[in-house]
Amino acid sequence: MPEATPRNIIDKFFFTVGSVLDAPTVWVREKIVEPNQKNYPWYHQKFRRVPTIDQCYTDDVVCIHEANVQYKRDKLVDNEILSILRQRFEDCTMYEAPDHLEKCTPLMRQYEEAAGNWFAKYGDLGAYHDARRAYMKQKHRMVWERRHGPVGSGMKKTGSLEE
Predict the structure, then answer these.
(1) Stretch (H or E) spanning 84
(2) How far apart are CA 62 and CA 49, in angstroms?
(3) b/e map of 51-86 (b: 16 or more CB within 10 Å)?
(4) Distance CA 14, CA 20 (A)
(5) 161 pLDDT above the threshold of 50
């Protein structure tokens, strides 16, 4: 929007006074503050991804520590995602009070799937767990699935006695 030109001497006076007071502030903002700001398109700090625990050597303490810190950050993010999904489902059930069984079913399924995935990754690890223990849990689960089929599907039949 173009600036209005002053119409009379009083407008011209106030326009000049305003420009004198406003010009240093605008100059500092445009020439000093804005060029030195870090402009992120997101509202949280973005960390670089580091090697996971399976990519670290066993004697590389720094790599193991970075993997643990990243694992804990990822767990916090997964906790928040699960919390948001749970809150969406609860809000839906409160808003759609009598018909919530039909209308909120997709949200309930999405939350239950996310909760199952969260438990598969972080569940049963105890209070003081780290990336190494989570990796071992994942490895043991993969060995179990290779031998017996997917977890929760029942054990596959082996041997000739049951045939």
Answers:
(1) helix 61-95
(2) 14
(3) ebbeebeeeeeebbebbbebbeebbeeeeeebeebe
(4) 10
(5) no
What is the pLDDT confidence band of residue 14, given thresholds at 50, 70 and 90?
Answer: confident
Kindly state the tokens that stand for 84: 């948001």
Phi-psi bin for 146: left (phi > 0), alpha (psi -120 to 50), beta? alpha
**What distances in angstroms separate CA 109 from CA 98, 106, 119, one per listed residue?**
19, 5, 15
Write the DSSP symbol of residue 50.
-
Give the distance from CA 101 to its chain's centroid. 29
**What is the per-residue pLDDT across 148-158, written as a single tens digit (0 to 9) for each?**
888 777 766 66
The pTM for the full model equals 0.64
Contact 124, 116 (CB under 8 A): no
Query: Per-residue pLDDT tens for 98-137?
Result: 888 889 999 999 999 999 999 989 988 888 889 999 999 9
Give the orientation angle of helix 61-95 with respect to helix 105-122, to 10 degrees.
160
Which two tokens mark 109? 């399924």
